[in-house]
Specification:
- There is one protein chain.
- By secondary structure, the chain is mainly beta.
- About 5% of the residues lie in helices and about 35% in strands.
Length: about 240
């Protein structure tokens, strides 16, 4: 069981952010309250009017980061219904960026989200006397990428341990025993296709172009069919894609 030990404060909303493909915890993900009850809105308005002597703004109570184990929580919120959004911010961004003019929490993913992952919106209710841990929110962020299967052209059986690599970057994945792979964490680009290279021992290399343009979308691709290497005098012949 998960416990939070926060002295003199009451946890109002709590949850965990996970990778939708690997189910591993995501640290430093940004979780924001986009809308809340009137009392919460009034509290934000009061905070916006306050500035310390050095001009620093008070910490936004509606923004938090996940811990190394993916857990997050919000403290001492007024009762009511809330809408929240979770996403992975661009590497190294501060919780509150220095320039937020004209920006809102509703569109913050568009201007500071790491598009190698999508965003996840969810609802939460805060009520007095409710067990805070009976419904721990589990938020799964979908990585951007492609998935598919690598098969042998001779019999269409899955090719195990085939390497699928995105040319020009470090993303790669290996197929499982049935030939399935998921290549995740790719930066989308609506203007340029990416080249995927597929290699497996005993087979000729294969490549294909794919358009990865939608953040948080893992596109299913057609099967990649590999031909067995042709050998002459015990030596493999070079691939046509080499």
């Amino acid at each position: 069981m998960t416990h939070f030990m926060v002295a003199h404060h009451q946890v109002a909303i709590a949850g965990r952010v996970l990778d939708a493909v690997t189910s591993k915890s995501i640290a430093r993900a940004l979780v924001e309250i986009t809308t809340g009850p009137p009392e919460y809105t009034e509290r934000l308005a009061l905070l916006a009017q306050f500035e310390s002597g050095d001009g620093a703004k008070p910490k936004d109570p509606g923004v938090t980061r996940t811990r190394p184990d993916g857990l997050f929580y919000f403290l001492d919120l007024p009762e009511g219904d809330y809408k929240l959004v979770a996403f992975l911010p661009k590497g190294g961004l501060y919780t509150t960026p220095p320039d937020t003019a004209g920006k809102t929490t509703e569109d913050s993913y568009d201007w500071r989200g790491d598009k190698r992952y999508g965003k996840e919106q969810f609802d939460a209710n805060v009520s007095v006397g409710r067990n805070r841990f009976d419904r721990l929110a589990v938020i799964r962020l979908q990585p951007t990428g492609v998935m598919g299967r690598v098969v042998a052209s001779a019999n269409q059986s899955g090719v195990q341990m085939a390497e699928v690599r995105c040319k020009g970057s470090g993303e790669r994945a290996f197929t499982d025993a049935q030939g399935h792979y998921t290549l995740a964490g790719i930066q989308p680009n609506a203007r340029q296709k990416r080249m995927l290279q597929v290699r497996a021992r005993g087979y000729r290399d294969q490549s294909m172009e794919v358009l990865i343009d939608t953040p948080g979308d893992c596109t299913k691709l057609p099967d990649v069919s590999l031909e067995a290497e042709k050998r002459i005098n015990g030596f493999a012949q070079p691939s046509l894609d080499a």
